[in-house]
Design a protein that fits this description.
It is built from three helices and two strands, in the order H-H-H-E-E. By secondary structure, the chain is mainly α. A two-stranded antiparallel ribbon has the order 1-2. The structure holds iron/sulfur cluster.
C-alpha cells in the first residue's frame, strides 16, 4: 500500500488536531466554568475530598507507611487543591468584567469572591444588576 501523505503533512495534521483539540477543550472548560458560581467549586472540592479520603484510608493498609504519606500529600494536591485553583482561575476570568468594571464592584454589598450581591442574594451580570443601581452604597475603604 502506498502512503500519499508526506511526513510534514502528517506532522502538520497532528499539530492542527492537537491545537484544535486543546482550544476546543479549553473553550469547553471555560464555558462550563463561566456558568459556575463559587458554591459549585466548593461543592465539587467537597465531593472530591469525600471520595479521596476513604480511598486513601483503604490504601493505608496496602502501602508502606513512608510511601503512603507521599502518595496522600500528592493526591490531595492533585485531586483537591490543584483543580480548585484552576477552576477558581477560570471562574475569576469568566467574571472579571463584573468584579472589576461594574457598579457593583464599588458597592459595599458586593462580595467579589462569590460574585454576589449580599443585599439581594443574587448574582449581578453585565446586563443586569439586582438593584438596577438604586441601592448602591460605596465601600468604606474606597
Ligand atoms: S446593592 Fe446594587 S450596586 Fe450594590 S451589589 Fe447589590 S446590585 Fe450591586
Amino acid at each position: 500500500m502506498v502512503c500519499l501523505i508526506s511526513n510534514s503533512q502528517r506532522i502538520n495534521a497532528t499539530i492542527n488536531f492537537n491545537l484544535n483539540f486543546n482550544l476546543t477543550l479549553g473553550k469547553t472548560i471555560f464555558s462550563f466554568c463561566r456558568e459556575k458560581i463559587m458554591g459549585h467549586l466548593i461543592f465539587w472540592a467537597i465531593i472530591r475530598t469525600a471520595i479521596l479520603i476513604p480511598s486513601l484510608w483503604l490504601l493505608y493498609g496496602m502501602m508502606e507507611y513512608k510511601y503512603w504519606w507521599w502518595f496522600a500529600i500528592l493526591s490531595i494536591y492533585g485531586v483537591i487543591i490543584h483543580p480548585l485553583v484552576i477552576q477558581y482561575r477560570f471562574f475569576y476570568e469568566a467574571n472579571k468584567e463584573i468584579i472589576e468594571n461594574t457598579l457593583c464592584s464599588s458597592c459595599k454589598y458586593f462580595d467579589k469572591t462569590a460574585v454576589l450581591c449580599m443585599k439581594y442574594d443574587k448574582h449581578p451580570t453585565l446586563e443586569e444588576l439586582p438593584c438596577e443601581g438604586n441601592d448602591w452604597e460605596p465601600k468604606e475603604n474606597v
